[in-house]
Design brief:
Largest sheet of chain B: none
Number of helices of chain B: 3
Radius of gyration of chain B: 19 Å
Largest sheet of chain A: none
Number of domains of chain A: 1
Largest interface: A-B, 52 and 50 residues
CATH architecture of chain A: Up-down Bundle
Oligomer: heterodimer
Shape of chain B: elongated
Distance between the termini of chain A: 40 Å
CATH superfamily of chain A: Cytochrome c oxidase, subunit III, four-helix bundle
Number of strands of chain A: 0
Radius of gyration of chain A: 19 Å
Order of helices and strands of chain B: HHH
Helix content of chain B: over 70%
Structural class of chain A: mainly alpha
Order of helices and strands of chain A: HHHHHH
Number of strands of chain B: 0
Chain lengths: 191, 100
């Protein structure tokens, strides 16, 4: 159990990223509620089209994001101990998992697009494509941030005293993971 | 090496090892819950209780990510509650809407 003094630490990373994270969480929250409300109004339609979603890819993507988050945690812990190479390795592995997510998601999108599915196909696909593509864009942004941190870490920009950049990128990446933790069961599992 | 410096270094290495172990345990738990929920879904469960179970597992996973991976367990309560409050609010609303 941490001491009370430890519970008054400032937010990890740059405060500005937390404003961004809170704003993003609000937007995703509204989209999730909108999906749930619309689903309750069109239960049969949603249940029918959900059958055609690839749950395996959704589960694989969840495992990939969770694992990438774990590697990011390892990278943050490593830089706090001045273990620069371990930090770089952690970020590299997280990016690799992120690439796996993008490949799996691109294949899933391409499968849907080749079947003629578009935003205008029906209400379910409008939500499915909007939510997953919006999240997909966040994964790309998160990977750009992680890559920038990786290069800076390799150049020796971070150490046990100054690692705000690593914590900032890590916080954003965990937010991307957190959102997917709700999106996956909501869209792929609950029928 | 000065005794106090040596003690601090020892404590720091111990804390680091403890945090590494903790992160790994949480990773295992997150992976297990994901596979469990996916498997239940694969067997075609779709009752109201299953929905609650799935969303409860998301709540637990989200709590771990916020507290342990984001590191908010150690920050001032107002920040932790803001993010955890978002998680609880969204999941509770989804459950309520689903039951309607």
């Amino acid at each position: 159990m941490p001491m009370d003094t430890e519970r008054t630490k400032p937010l990890p990373g740059d405060f500005a990223i937390w404003i961004f994270i809170f704003a993003e969480l609000m937007v995703f929250g509204v989209l999730f509620i909108a999906y749930a409300v619309t689903r309750s109004l069109h239960r049969e339609e949603f249940a029918y089209y959900q059958q055609f979603l690839d749950r395996e890819t959704g589960a694989l993507n969840t495992l990939l994001l969770i694992t990438s988050s774990y590697f990011v945690v390892k990278a943050v812990l490593a830089i706090k101990q001045d273990k620069v190479q371990q930090c770089v390795n952690g970020l590299g592995l997280a990016l690799l998992c992120g690439c796996g997510f993008l490949v799996a998601k691109t294949l899933e999108f391409s499968d849907k697009f080749s079947a003629g599915i578009r935003l205008s196909t029906n209400t379910f696909y409008m939500f499915y494509l909007s939510l997953t593509f919006f999240h997909f864009m966040h994964v790309i942004l998160g990977m750009v941030i992680l890559a920038a941190i990786l290069f800076k870490a390799r150049a020796g920009a971070y150490n046990h005293r100054e690692h705000t950049g690593v914590e900032t990128g890590a916080s954003y990446w965990h937010m991307v993971d957190l959102v997917w933790i709700i999106l996956f069961p909501l869209v792929y599992i609950i029928r | 090496m000065d005794h106090s410096v040596s003690t601090r270094l020892h404590h720091s290495v111990n804390t680091w090892a403890h945090q590494q172990t903790r992160a790994k345990r949480i990773w295992f738990a997150l992976m297990f819950l994901t596979v469990f929920v996916y498997t239940c879904g694969r067997f075609g469960f779709s009752s109201q209780w299953f929905v609650i179970l799935v969303l409860a597992s998301s709540l637990l996973k989200g709590y771990w990510i916020i507290a342990e991976y984001m590191g908010l367990r150690q920050v001032a309560r107002k920040w932790r509650w803001l993010v955890q409050g978002w998680l609880v609010l969204v999941i509770v609303l989804i459950v309520i809407i689903h039951q309607l």
